[in-house]
Design a protein that fits this description.
single chain, 218 residues, alpha/beta, 5-stranded parallel β-sheet, 8 helices, 11 strands
Length: 218
C-alpha cells in the first residue's frame, strides 16, 4: 500500500516514514501544501496523512481542492490537540479521521489500517488465504502449523491483492501501489513477485488476465 505523508516538521516526518515502512507501506513525503496538492491529484495513493499547518498552502485548502476534484482518497488529518476548530474544518473539507498531536504511532497505524479496510469494503479485521491468515504486524502468513515469511514487496503486493479481491489489476497499477515515488520501478518485476506468491500460496489464488493484468480470486 502506498501512502502520502504531508508534514513540514522534518524530524517527525522522518520518524513516521521509518515506522510506516516497517509496517509495510511505501511512503512518499512532501513538506508543503503546493506539492501535496499536486501529488494527491497526480498519484493514486491508498492513504494520505495530512498535517494542517503547512507552508505555501494550508492542509484544509489542499484537502478541499482534492475533494473538489473528486479525489476520494482516504485522509487522516493531524492537528494540534486543543485545536477543535481545525478538526471541525477538516471534517467539513472532507477528512475521514483526525489525530491530535502529540500522538503515538501505534494509534495512527491502527487508524490508517481501519480506514483502508473501510475503503475496501472489508468488514473483517483479518485477511485469510486458505488456511492462512495475513499477520500485518509481523508481515507474514500464519496457520496453526506453520509461518510463511514474506519479503517487504511480497507483503505489500499480497495485501493489495487481498484488499482488491475480484478486481483486475494491471502491472502498472500494482507497481504504483507497492513502490515509493523515488524507487526504481519496473512493472516486469511485478510478474516475478506474483510468481513468488503463487509458489507460496498455490497457483490458483492469483489468476492471469492476458493483456490486462492479474486478479486475486481467493
Amino acid at each position: 500500500m502506498r501512502l502520502l505523508l504531508v508534514e513540514d516538521e522534518e524530524a517527525l516526518s522522518k520518524r513516521l516514514k521509518t515506522s510506516f515502512k516497517r509496517a509495510g507501506f511505501a511512503v512518499d513525503i512532501v513538506n508543503n501544501g503546493i506539492d501535496a496538492e499536486y501529488m494527491g491529484n497526480e498519484i493514486d495513493y491508498d492513504m494520505v496523512v495530512l498535517d494542517l499547518g503547512l507552508p505555501k498552502k494550508s492542509g484544509i485548502d489542499v484537502l478541499a481542492s482534492w475533494r473538489e476534484n473528486n479525489r476520494e482518497i482516504p485522509v487522516i488529518i493531524l492537528t494540534a490537540r486543543d485545536a477543535w476548530h481545525e478538526r471541525v474544518d477538516g471534517f467539513k473539507a472532507g477528512a475521514d479521521d483526525y489525530l491530535g498531536k502529540p500522538f503515538h504511532f501505534e494509534e495512527l497505524l491502527v487508524r490508517v489500517q481501519a480506514l483502508l479496510r473501510r475503503n475496501s469494503a472489508k468488514t473483517s479485521h483479518q485477511f485469510s488465504i486458505g488456511e492462512y491468515l495475513l499477520d500485518e504486524d509481523k508481515q507474514c502468513l500464519v496457520s496453526d502449523n506453520e509461518t510463511l515469511e514474506l519479503t517487504g514487496i511480497e507483503f505489500r503486493l499480497l495485501r493489495y491483492f487481498l484488499m482488491h479481491k475480484g478486481e483486475i489489476l494491471s502491472k502498472t497499477k500494482l507497481t504504483e501501489h507497492v513502490y515509493e515515488n523515488d524507487a526504481d520501478k519496473d512493472s516486469n518485476v511485478i510478474e516475478v513477485y506474483v510468481n513468488h506468491l503463487r509458489k507460496i500460496l498455490g497457483k490458483d489464488f492469483i489468476k492471469t488476465r492476458r493483456g490486462q493484468g492479474y486478479m486475486y480470486t481467493g
